[in-house]
Design brief:
179 residues, alpha+beta, Ferric Hydroxamate Uptake Protein, Chain A, domain 1, 9 strands, globular, disordered N terminus
């Protein structure tokens, strides 16, 4: 079963570009809700080509950042994949592929940027912060965000949560109907 964004999600993604705070080049390619449960956290990926993907991951109970990846991979086999390499000091995200976008690496000279930089924020109102905890150790909370940016020290672009983007689209349609 392949997941494709609805027309509404696609339109919301286009509007979300107007909310992007740091990267004028970032493009929200897709936004999905996966998993099930009473809680949800967000998982955002930005590739070298500036394509950005956003997932709302639903769950119950206590989970960690690496569980978010597992839930998405289980929901979108053949579309979303990732590779983790374990070291004595912890796990490292080596590669991510979403649709036709794919990046992998651990930081090679001369810039040492070609790796997945891990960012977190506790809510959509909080600023992004470089994570001081590995994703396998980070306990996520309802409403929290985990962001991954490849080949850049910049924080992830600010994009509205899927529900907020849907509200923006609904407001645009309501305004058009009144005219």
């Amino acid at each position: 079963m392949q997941f494709r964004p609805t027309v509404l999600e696609t339109m919301a993604a286009a509007l979300a570009l107007g909310f992007s705070a740091h990267a004028a080049h970032a493009e929200l390619v897709g936004s999905w809700t996966v998993g099930s449960g009473a809680s949800s956290s967000f998982l955002q990926f930005e590739f070298t080509n500036s394509n950005t993907y956003l997932y709302e991951v639903r769950y119950d109970g206590s989970i960690r950042g690496d569980d978010l990846l597992s839930i998405v991979a289980a929901a979108q086999p053949g579309f979303f994949s990732y590779e983790v390499i374990s070291f004595s000091f912890g796990d490292a995200l080596f590669g991510v592929a979403i649709g036709s976008d794919s990046d992998e690496g651990f930081g090679t000279p001369p810039d040492y940027l070609d790796y997945w930089h891990y960012w977190t924020r506790e809510s959509s109102e909080s600023p992004w912060a470089a994570s001081m905890t590995g994703f396998a150790d980070r306990v996520v909370a309802n409403g929290s965000w985990d962001g991954w940016v490849f080949n850049s020290n910049d924080a992830p672009a600010l994009v509205p949560a899927p529900a907020a983007a849907t509200l923006v689209v609904a407001a645009v349609f309501a305004r058009r109907r009144r005219r």
